[in-house]
Structures are given as C-alpha cells and as structure tokens.
Amino acid sequence: MSGEENHWVRKVLEHPTGDLNQVVTELNHFLGDRTSVGDRVGSDSDRELAMSLHAYILNLSTEDEEKRFSCADVCRWFDLVQHTQGWPKETIPLSLDVQSERVIAKLAEAEGRGNNPPGIAKSSLSPEEEAAERERKAAAKRAEKEAKKAAKKEKAAASPTATAREETKPGADEQDGESATRLDIRVANIISADRHPDAESLYVEQIDVGDESPRTVCSGLVKYIPDPASLVGPCMVICNLKPANMRGIRSEAMVLCATSEDGSTVELVKPPAGAKVGSRVTYPGHTGTPDDILNPKKKIFEKVAPFLITDDQGVATWKGIPWTLPEGLCTTTLPRALIK
Questions:
Q1: Is-contact 305 318, C-beta < 8 A?
Q2: By the 8 A CB rule, do 198 and 176 touch?
Q3: Which sign does the torsion angle of CA 162, 167, 172, 174 carry?
Q4: For residue 203, what is the enclosing H or E element?
Q5: Nearest-CA neighbor of 141 among 90, 193, 191, 73?
Q6: Backbone angles phi, psi at 55, to 5 degrees
C-alpha cells in the first residue's frame, strides 16, 4: 500500500464514525478526478478504506440528497468498490442521482442568498470552472450507472435461468463494445523465435494457434527476454488484431505478457497445464463471440487493455474476472501487473 493510500486509511481510523465529515470532504476532493484511491477500484487498499467507511456511508444513505451531493465523488467511489467481487460487507443501496432538479434548485437558491445549504461548502470556482465541474460530475454519474448495470448483469449471470436466457443471445451481456469477449485470446505454442533481421528490439516467432498452419508474429521482447530459446513453449496470444507490417515482416497476432509495476520485468502469460492449443479464454458470467478482426478505428483493444491485469496471486483477469479455460486459469508470477 502506497503512502497516499495509507494516509487515507489512517485518517479514517483515527476518527470516530460520527466525526468523519471533514475527512470525507477531503477524500471527496481527492477523488474528484480519480476512480480509485489505489491502483484500481478492486485493490486491497480501496477495499480496506471502503470497509472503514461502511458505517459512515450506511448513515449517509439515509441523509438528505444535499448531504450526498456534498460528497458525491466518495459515494460514487464507494459504490464501485462495494460492487467488486469478494466485497465482504452488506451492500448499501445508494441514491446517486446527485444532480436532481430539487438539489440544483436549492443550490441556486443558496447562491442567490450568498450562503450555502447545510453540508455544502461555498464554491470558489469561476463560472467556467463550475461548468466544467458540473460536466465532470455528469460524466462520473454516467460511468457509475454503467458500473452498476455491469454488476447487476454479473449477479444475474449467476442464476441458471438467467444464464440460459443470455446464452441464446451471444454477446448480449456486453453491448458497450468494451468487452474482453470480443478479443480472440487463445492458447498457443511458440515453435521458434529468432531476432528480426532489421529491428534490434524485435523477435520473429512462429506460433501454433490452432489454425492449419503456424502464424508469424513479431514481438518487442528482446530487451526483457534476451534468450530467444526461453520463449519456446506455451503462451497466450490475441489472434484477431489486424495484421501489421513490422519492418518488412507481417505480424499476424500478439503475444500477451505481464509487466511488473515498475516496468522492469516482463514475462509471458501462461495457460494451465494440459490446455489445448487453439482453446479460447472465457470469463465466467460473460458471454460473447470474438470479432473476426478487430476494427482499429474503433480501438476496441485499447478500451479493454487497461482492465487486463493480474490479481494478487498473478492470475490473469479482465475487470477482476479470471481468464478461464477448461483445464484451469491463465497465470504469471507477477502480481498486480498490466497485461499487454
């Protein structure tokens, strides 16, 4: 846990539940342009801090809309955390319609009198900054609704009847275009790896992905894995990226690797033992059919990539959901690492 994360957890623990207003106000300001306190919403630090604030938020859920408006970013963040997998406490129903006409009318009335509604600090922003702030909150509200919608779909997917209904509509549970189910991630086997003749940083690999013939793939791994022989063997690849010409050689897939938090270590994501070459990764609770070829203009991979992360045990996940194959899970030795 970083110093910044420790700071907030310590501040909350040092105050009684009934005396947290100032701390929550400061945390609300801190979260104004962030979605998490730690490196991601589902991190241990976010969960620990949210659990420490559970009693305060539970009380807040019964307060007037004005009070929730005053800490809207904390409520937004808390609601995202409590809908991550493994949340151990009671889920608090939060009314997050913080821009209701009644609240806005009261704010406008208070500004006209030169004072503020209870619990809402007077703004020191210029009109232009206030307009930007309103737009930011509206965007946060939209993102929050999408997160709640996704959480409801995950819960519904746990029901056998709901799963049966969803399976009649491939891809129906992910309409936003940012689902990892659109990526064709397969078990593969690197047959050979050699240095690119015209690019010092690239390897040229021959990889069996379960097609009739191996694919040629260029990977920028020379800096991190200097021995090409160590690449030979099982790996995971994305097979539906548009082929790219890399210094005169056509690359037809992408090898997936985990990168340590400091960027110094890179290693291949590995399939479970016994996994069949060509098998596709699935995500429990989510259905969908991979695109034939991802359209580069729609930047689907770029939208999904920030959520491809290993968990604390090094298991490859998408939004906290493990990459799953019939034989088990895909893994690395690197915890909390981006996969790219």
A1: no
A2: no
A3: positive
A4: strand 199-208
A5: 73
A6: -65, -40
User: What six digits make up the tokens of 269?
Assistant: 């994501």
Closest CA to 185 of 109, 294, 264: 294
Interhelix angle 72-82/127-157, rounded to 10 degrees, is 20
Report yes or no on whether pTM surpasses 0.85: no
How far, CA to CA in Å, does 333 sit from each of 76, 234, 310, 312? 33, 15, 9, 10
Which residues, including other chains, have CB under 8 Å from residue 246's CB and lie 6 or more apart?
Answer: 196, 199, 202, 218
- Distance between first and last Cα of the chain: 24
In tens digits, what is the pLDDT along the chain, a chain of 340 residues?
455 556 777 777 676 655 778 888 888 888 877 777 777 767 777 888 888 888 888 887 666 566 777 788 888 888 888 888 778 888 888 765 544 444 445 445 554 544 444 444 444 555 555 666 666 677 777 777 777 777 777 766 665 444 433 433 434 344 446 789 999 999 999 999 999 999 889 999 999 999 999 999 999 999 999 999 999 999 999 999 999 998 899 999 999 999 988 888 999 999 999 999 999 999 999 988 999 999 988 888 889 999 999 999 999 999 999 999 999 999 999 999 999 8
Residue 249, strand partner residues: 246
**Alpha carbons 311 and 278: distance in angstroms, whole number:** 24
